[in-house]
Please model this.
Amino acid sequence: MTFTEDDLRALLDERTAPAPERATDVTQIVRRGRRMLMIRWGMGAALAGAAALVAFLVVPGQSPNADPIPVAAATPSATPSRTPERQPALTLDGKDRSAALASDKSAVGYDLKLTPKSSDLVVRCEEPGAWVALSFKGGAQKGATARCAGRGTRFELSGKAKSVRVWVFPANAPVVDRPLKDCVLVEKEKGLCDGKYAAAELIRYDVALSLAADLGAQPGSWSAAVYDRP
Amino acid sequence: MDTFAEYVMTRSARLRRTAYVLTGDWDTADDLVQTALAKAWTAWRRIDGDPDPYVYRILTHTHASWWRRRWRGEVPTERLPETPGGDFSAEAEEKAAVWAAIRELSGRQRAVIVLHYFEELTLPQCAHVLGCSLGTVKTQLGRALAKLRVHPGIRSEEAAR
Model:
């Protein structure tokens, strides 16, 4: 017997016909996809950090004491820009700015360092109504979520946390401002309420990251600044 | 149900069969399909129109990268299905030899065979999925067919008959 192309087709069909039954779990595939994105973001952040370090070391005339504003540590893909025109005000009601960042993209989150004197955080968004979510590290201060107001949204700081992660999501992100107890379909682990993200749950890192992964980086610039008491 | 979930539900069975021809092992095929679909999910919003060419491209490229890393060396050889009484006909022997020969093709050659003869894609479509020129596809296909027809395994069995 000489094998023809039709024989080859028949052989391929024959060999794959007795496929063992196995249900495909979409949730597991999506979870795997999210892990891939997180790894990609982690690598992006590491590269951005390395690039920033190299730039810092090679730009002449810069010393570790030359920049009075501590730089926020970036985590996801996009690097926060700190162009002068985007920088928030240097003072707020007589309080000095101690940390600041600006981003060209929304659906991303960055860390800002806090000091024991930090008393206010102001987030300004290009898109009014954008979602802002804060989660604190160190200290007992609970996170907060709010819609971004036109002139900026102000949050009070307890002065106990060491850093705050600021997330900004587009106004039309799949977020509902409803506590989980009022939802018909609750997926507590994912922070989902009736298939959308519950605003109050966005203070959880995994929930905010999940929303960011769903959306991908979106257009919409914003800035955030921390102010310290004298 | 979102479009991705719908796609997975309707196409995963076929993708598994395609992956099986590529890998020769159902467990590895499942892993390959899952990996390819997860990669596709990360870019789902950017896919315009029919996602099949994109998903097949990921599937074949992922398999090629596994193949390059000698993943195939870790795949246990699957036993041929036994016939009643354990007696193989000459035709069954030849099929077994061709099947074994397919598994010895390079990753790219096997991908061309799978896309052209199993997925029934035209050669230009194969080139699009594999991200290479039509000429490359024709060359790979020619080499693959040559190997399948004159593979030592097949020749020795023909000589024995």
Summary: Chain B is about 70% helix and 0% strand. Residues 71-87, 150-161 of chain B have pLDDT under 50 and may be disordered.
